[in-house]
Amino acid sequence: MDEELRPAAPAPAADLAAAAAAVARRAAEAQVEGRMPALYLGHGAPPLVDDALWVAELAAWAGALPRPTAILMVSAHWEAAPITLGATDDGVPLVYDFSGFPERYYQARYPAPAAPALAARVRALLGDGPVAQHPARGLDHGAYVPLLVMYPHADVPVLQVSLPTLEPQRLIELGARLRPLRDEGVLVIGSGFLTHGLPFLRDFRTDAPPPAWSSEFDAWAAAALAAGDLDALAGFRDAPGGRYAHPSTEHFVPLFVTLGAGGTDSPPAPTIEGYYLGLSKRSVQIA
Question: For residues 86 and 79, what is the distance between their CA atoms, to the nearest angstrom?
Answer without folding.
Answer: 12
